[in-house]
Design a protein that fits this description.
heterodimer, A: alpha+beta, 2 domains, five-stranded mixed β-sheet, four-stranded antiparallel β-sheet, 2 helices, globular, B: about 0% strand, elongated
Chain lengths: ~350, ~170
């Protein structure tokens, strides 16, 4: 197994290091210098910061706009069973399109329930319409599209990666690369790759592209660095999906996250405010930049009706736009701890 | 007060410094670069030592990964040229197939771009899950998996013997 070899190789490499002497005293000396520099900068910036924060607030404060208290959760917990021969539906009717179990992967075949994929395939994501699966195959560098109806594989000209996102209608696949993105259209066997200059898109460590509305635009967060080690999202850049040209910037301070982070009507977006602390998600109204809900989840996505489906631990929850808990489902034992992909 | 902070910090470095240098060495492939990386991370941590709540190690580790990957980004996609020399000895049974493969793999690891290597170090040296790796690197789990897939593809291209093997853990 390559995993064992890799583990040994990485550990052998680390074992070549030796314990340095005097690193604590050198670090403390350097740390004292950092502190002194910070104090100097803090004093110089204090007055400007106070003015920058208070003046616009005093001038622009609108007493009508107040943060809305989040409503209390009203859980109605459902505990369904799971049968591999039948379609499993989560809250809001979302279909379970696939799941992984150890090294085995299963995808939904609407006629026969969940079927096991060949072990040579590493499935990255089934399409929301349940028609295709993006897969990687051992020893092959390109991403392949498996047609679940015909069983045919299409070897795309796009490099294999698992950072893929299907459009909500399942017609297009967005593939994130180190330096840009690709769009793949399985029905027409068309694809295009755009390289985005790093200066044009300063992403937080790694760029992540998501569909921003329908199938024509994609978004990626921009970052700013505050201090030595903290990176924050300063806004989003929207690109034309087909041409790769930047269209506009959105002043949303958070990275779109999850399998379907934009509402169908384009009014709301699910974001992770700090890309370094996953799990705390917010629903933001795009026009006003107002946060309407905040919750903890490993993933979340908008359903077609504008509500949000999220997983946290062994629970699936459907939230209203204001954070109201509309439905809560406890995952059956057969799906707990599995990697789940739902259709949105 | 200052003395107690310095004593606490020193005790932390004595206890955890070797583990941090191991991580940094796996990331850089070089002792001096590893020490520099750790020293800068420790200095940043020391500068705000009193404001770090709880165990400072995750904070320091995060700075190490961030600085390493950020450094690479600042290099404007300059090709990675770090290729440390093979150790003269130190691995028993240097002639058996597994050892040869591991040595070849070591060289191949050093040719990976820093963020791909960072993913492998988090997954295999620190035994982090995909989700935990994503949190440290500030990206989506899918991005971690794609970086791992790219790393594997590159390793397979450099070490053809890997083509016959399957990877179960790193991609999930």
């Amino acid at each position: 197994m390559i995993d064992d070899l890799l583990r040994s190789a990485v550990r052998d490499l680390a074992d070549e290091s030796y314990t340095p002497s005097g690193i604590a005293s050198r670090a403390m000396a350097q740390g004292h210098r950092i502190r002194r520099n910070r104090r100097t900068a803090a004093v110089a910036g204090a007055l400007a910061a106070v003015l920058a924060v208070t003046v616009p607030f005093v001038v622009l404060r609108d007493p009508a706009v107040r943060p809305e208290p989040l409503p209390a959760a009203t859980p109605m917990i459902v505990r369904p069973t799971f049968d591999r021969g039948e379609v499993f539906r989560g809250p809001g009717g979302a279909r379970l399109l696939g799941f992984s179990e150890g090294v085995e992967n299963f995808v939904l075949d609407p006629e026969n329930g969940y079927r096991r994929l060949p072990t040579a395939d590493t499935p990255f994501d089934p399409s929301p319409d349940g028609r295709h699966v993006a897969v990687g195959r051992a020893g092959q560098e390109s991403l392949q599209i498996l047609d679940l109806r015909t069983g045919d594989y299409w070897k795309t000209p796009v490099a294999a990666t698992s950072d893929v996102t299907w459009s909500s209608d399942g017609s297009r696949l967005l593939v994130t690369h180190d330096d840009g993105y690709s769009i793949i259209e399985p029905a027409t066997r068309w694809s295009v790759t755009h390289r985005v200059a790093s200066a044009q898109l300063p992403c937080p460590i790694l760029c992540s592209f998501t569909w921003s509305a329908g199938t024509t635009e994609v978004a990626s967060p921009r970052s700013v660095s505050r201090g030595d080690e903290k990176t924050e999202v300063s806004g989003l850049t929207i690109f034309d999906a087909d041409s790769g040209e930047p269209l506009r910037d959105l002043p949303i301070k958070g990275a779109p996250t999850g399998p379907n982070p934009w509402s169908a009507d384009g009014r709301w977006v699910l974001v992770n405010e700090n890309p370094r602390s996953s799990g705390q998600l917010r629903i933001v109204e795009i026009a006003s930049r107002r946060e309407t809900a905040r919750f903890t989840a490993v993933w979340a996505g908008f359903l077609p009706d504008g509500t949000v489906l999220a997983q946290h631990g062994g629970d699936l929850t459907r939230y209203g736009i204001d954070g109201t808990v509309l439905e809560k489902m406890e995952l059956p034992a057969g799906l707990r701890g599995r990697g789940l992909t739902f259709g949105f | 007060m200052t003395q107690s902070i310095e004593a606490e910090f020193t005790a932390f470095v004595v206890a955890r410094g070797p583990a941090l240098v191991r991580i940094a060495y796996a990331l850089t492939g070089d002792q001096q670069n590893a020490e520099d990386l750790v020293q800068v991370a420790l200095a940043k941590a020391f500068a705000r030592w009193t404001r770090i709540s709880g165990d400072p190690e995750p904070y320091v580790r995060r700075i190490i990964y961030n600085d390493r990957v950020s450094f690479w980004r600042r290099q404007s996609r300059r090709p990675e040229l770090l290729m440390a020399d093979l150790p003269e000895s130190g691995l028993p049974g240097a002639h058996d197939h597994d050892t040869t493969l591991r040595l070849a793999l070591r060289q191949a690891l050093l040719s990976l771009p820093p963020r791909q290597r960072a993913v492998l170090v988090l997954r295999y040296l620190e035994d982090r899950s995909v989700e935990e790796t994503a949190e440290v690197l500030g990206c989506r789990p899918g991005t971690v998996a794609s970086q791992a897939a790219r790393a594997l593809a590159k390793l397979r291209a450099i070490v053809p013997e890997l083509n016959d093997m399957t990877a179960a853990e790193v991609l999930r």
